Amino acid sequence: MVSPQTAIPQTEPEPLFADVIVPRHLVGPFTYTVPLSLRSTLRIGHRVLVPFGRSILQGAVVSLSYVLPQNLDQTRLKEICSLIPEGATTDVPPSLFQLSKQVAEQYVAPWGQCLRLVLPPTSKPRTNVSRYELTELGRAALLAREPSSVKIRTLLTRLGKKPSSFRRSSRSPGSAELLKELTGRGWVVEVQDLPAAQTESFARPIRQTNRNDSGVTTPFVSDPAISWAEPLFEALRGRGPSRVLLQASWADRLKLLQQAIRLLLNRKQTVLLLVGEAERAQWIAGLIRDAEIGITPVCFHSGLSDQMKADIWNQIHKQVVQVVVGTRSTVFLPLTAIGMIWVEGEEDTALKEVQEPRYHAREIAWLRAQHEPAVLVLGSSHPSLETRAAVEQQGVVVCKSMPTEERPNIQVVDLRAHSRGTVLSQPLVRAIEQTIGRQARGLLFLNRKGYAGALVCRDCGQVPRCSACRVALIYSRQANRLFCSYCGERAPIPEICVACSGPRMQLIGEGTERVEEEAKRLFPGAVVIRLDGDTMRRPTQAEALWRRVEQGEWDIIIGTQLLLRHEPFPTVGLVGIVQADAGLSLPDFRSAERTYHTLLDAVGLAGSARAGGQVILQTHLSSHHTIQAVAQNDESIFLSEELSHRTGLGYPPAMHLIALLVSGTDEKMVRDAATIWVARLTAYASASVAEQAVSGQALSTTPSIVRPDRLTVLGPVPSLVSRLRGRYRQQILVKSLEKDPGLEAVRATVKDMERNYQRRAVKFDVDVDPVEMW
Questions:
Q1: Pair 242, 233: CB distance under 8 Å
Q2: At what angle do helices 230-237 and 250-266 cross, to 10 degrees?
Q3: Is the separation of the CB atoms in 767 and 659 below 8 Å?
Q4: Helix count (H) and strand count (E) of the chain?
Q5: What does the CA dihedral 467, 469, 475, 481 come to, rounded to 10 degrees?
Q6: ∠ at Cα 352 (337, 773), nearest 5°?
Q7: pLDDT tens for each residue of 489-546
Q8: 32, 218, 248, 535: which has the fewest C-beta neighbours closer than 10 Å?
Q9: Cα–Cα dist 483/478, whole Å
Q10: In a 10 Å sphere around its CB, with 0-12 CB exposed, 13-18 middle and 19+ buried, how is residue 673 labelled?
Q11: How many angstroms separate the Cα of 408 from the Cα of each of 411, 569, 602?
Q12: Neighbours of 229 (CB within 10 A)
């Protein structure tokens, strides 16, 4: 018999452990104990608040287990504080949760940092605002001078002129009591204002609007005029993920986009549209908006307030939004039932994130399209070589060329035949005179990025190039030498050209200011406007200049790439490209491709030949494949030559690249760390070769890192900007025939490097598939 005083032993519940990742640059996850209050509700993917050092951070649960991980002391573990506050979304959608993990793996970034991408935007707590207005009774009392207090008369007089707003948190006790008294007398009335974010315009759910009696959107009817794009619509009607490259003019792409959206909305599917710039996203959203047929897109970009972004995220999460247009981060929004992800201007470098994790929205869009599954449409007037190669290997290419009669006449002017220092050649000057004479307006386009301190031979037009990397050598005024920003090769300044032995070597790169001065000198009666980073630095300046452009208050515009980003830019009678080859001198293996794209965009601003449209390209390299492809309107000239160069020299799309950056305040420590990293990368490859030799596998058949010729490490060399904000910078370039071997080598070695060096002393950055070199 059990004595009443005998205590019944309490069975302690088995401890439950949760692995949590937090949005920090740290190798996680971190293990916490789960409190009893959360055991029945906590699951993988839930967002929780956890203690982290002296802070409380938001994290996500990635695993739950009753088994304590090895080498951990249970007594030292901290407990999860709680789920995130009530009213917020408590978990990350499983598909996005998995996507964040894929981003971490593919871009060699901490999972916690990638988790930030899929979490709901945070917003500041909304503050209630009270507005007090004077009532008719209060006006009468004020006129009768009833208030005896000076404070009351002063306040009533102010309210009579203009209603006043007070934040509850900012009211002093004295004013609160006074307002309470006046409200009680009936002299003032309190009116609650909605927070500003609540009053911002927001798209209504398409499913509730623009319906006919049958409850469906306007029926989709195929347009015979776009029958050339039938492969695109076949992909949209099919099942399973697919990738479509759409190469056509913007007008044709816009028409297809609108038709594709109508088709998908009729199928109760959603659409995600990605672009590089926020301004362009807003412009496109306005173009595709058509309330009559049910297209009411929501625009999402970094320029929105935090509260507005949070509101849009929540509306998308509640599945009341069907079309979203936005910049690169839009690819991580919790849109469901996606039928199509459209990447407009897929070659735009703005689609690549510059901070960790350095993802490319175009590649993430393909990952997401495969998971949904959905159709990924990559739209461009001039696709990147990487995208073209990828889609030709697995996907569908839809192309429509511009009719010959719609193109302008193109004339190439060889500057080698003109005197040194010529800014505007005689053919271009005559063309400007004729254009102004017929009031057709002209554009003088200058690729400002072309100024890179490069040398050019005035006899043959060649520039000194690195013997190993074949990129243009940079001229360092400080060192008075040429050097390669990839492998570090250095060379003295040549007195004669190595190609033709000509003695006329000169630096190239006139700026827009000099072109403006020359235009004003030659055409004193013309109205000249300059559009570049200097004249459009401030928003008010830019707005005023664009207003003048739109109203036609100009004869000649001198501009850089900035004007190519503004939509729509008016068609002009003449486009004069002052230095068509300037971009070719940049120390970048993509310099020819980017120059080609820029020239095509500039040429596209000129009217058709039948309307008198004309383009004049001034160049020192008239025989270069980029110039010839533009002049002859023959893309095949550029593609065949450029792909041959890329394959022979080992650049994308023939090989995969990973750029590594080592930076710190101690120059020697940075240089030593970069040297050690290169040694470890090389040793990793060698160790893999030895392991395979021991296992008896054939080197000739394996696709892994074990073949030395499949992994090349260049560097370390000082970065193009060798010191930035007080930090010295060294660069390493990893090349691999297959993507995985390079990722494996970098992933394994960067962890060792970060363990051996304090992050504040030396920082190690990884950029997979870089679009800009550091």
A1: no
A2: 30
A3: yes
A4: 21, 30
A5: -40
A6: 160
A7: 788 888 899 889 888 887 765 677 788 889 999 999 999 999 887 788 788 888 898 8
A8: 218
A9: 12
A10: buried
A11: 10, 16, 11
A12: 22
Contact 357, 117 (CB under 8 A): yes
User: Angle 385-393/635-649 helices, nearest 10 degrees?
Assistant: 90
Q: Are 453 and 503 in contact (CB under 8 A)?
A: no
Q: Which residue has the tokens 């792909």?
A: 643
pTM above 0.85, yes or no: no
How does DSSP assign 419-467, residue by residue?
Answer: -TT-SS-HHHHHHHHHHHHTT--EEEE--GGG-S--EEETTT----B-T
How do residues 224-266 score in pLDDT, each as one tens digit?
778 899 999 999 998 889 999 999 999 999 999 999 999 999 9
C-alpha span between 650 and 648 (Å, rounded): 6
What are the average pLDDT values for consecutive 10-residue runs of the chain, which has 774 residues? 52 85 82 92 88 88 88 89 71 84 94 88 62 78 74 77 53 67 79 46 41 45 79 91 96 94 94 94 93 88 90 90 96 95 96 94 97 96 96 95 90 91 91 93 76 69 77 70 76 88 76 85 93 81 88 91 80 94 86 95 93 94 95 96 94 95 94 96 74 47 41 90 83 94 93 84 94 78
Under a CB-based contact definition with an 8 Å cutoff, are residues 567 and 448 in contact? no
Per 3-state DSSP, what percentage of the chain is helix, strand, and coil (rounded to 5)?
A: 40, 20, 40
**Which alpha helices (H) appear in 20-88, and where do they start and end?**
none
Q: Is 274 helix (H, G, I), strand (E, B) or coil?
A: strand
Partners of residue 376 on adjacent β-strands:
243, 341
